[in-house]
Design goal:
By secondary structure, the protein is an alpha+beta fold. The protein has helices spanning 4-19, 40-46, 80-90, 109-119; strands spanning 52-56, 60-67, 70-77, 96-100, 103-107, 122-125. Strands 1-2-3-5-4-6 form a six-stranded antiparallel beta sheet, with helices on both faces. A hairpin with a 3-residue loop joins strand 1 and strand 2. It is globular.
């Protein structure tokens, strides 16, 4: 699999991180539903998103969604391997990732946490390059 398209898709993801900062963290974990599956459109409908398509390729489909004033990226992948390669590369940009089978949602911690209540999945956290000295690291466990 060529990495050209996933790298192009990262440009949109990087824009989300330009707006993202460190989240507040903490709080109790809500009941998490069974992880959703399906097309980008079916996942978007379940998340109450009207997807603004950014990439529509064989390997990846990616859209920008909104929840209130917050934006997030919703992407689906043709293969599990393609998804994992994309996530591993994207995590270098930091951020919060809600990961399901062949899909990912990327955005602020609060958005990803709320989406988890709709879509299920696991939260992964990217590398923290902010240099904060408040003890906030990318080593959070979900």
């Amino acid at each position: 699999m060529r990495l050209t398209r996933p790298r192009l898709a990262l440009a949109g993801t990087a824009a989300v991180f330009a707006l993202a900062g460190c989240g507040s963290g903490g709080g109790e974990e809500a009941d998490v539903p069974k992880t959703a599956t399906g097309s980008l459109e079916s996942l978007a409908a379940r998340a109450k998103c009207d997807p603004n398509m950014q990439t529509d390729a064989d390997e990846i489909r990616q859209a920008i969604c909104r929840t209130g004033k917050e934006k997030y990226i919703l992407a689906t992948f043709a293969t599990d391997r393609g998804q994992r390669e994309w996530i591993n590369t994207a995590k270098d940009y930091g951020g919060y990732y809600l990961v399901g089978r062949k899909w990912v949602a990327v955005g602020h911690e609060s958005v990803v946490t709320a989406l988890r209540g709709e879509l299920g999945g696991d939260i992964e956290i990217g590398t923290d390059h902010s240099g904060h000295s408040d003890g906030h690291t990318a080593d959070h466990k979900s």
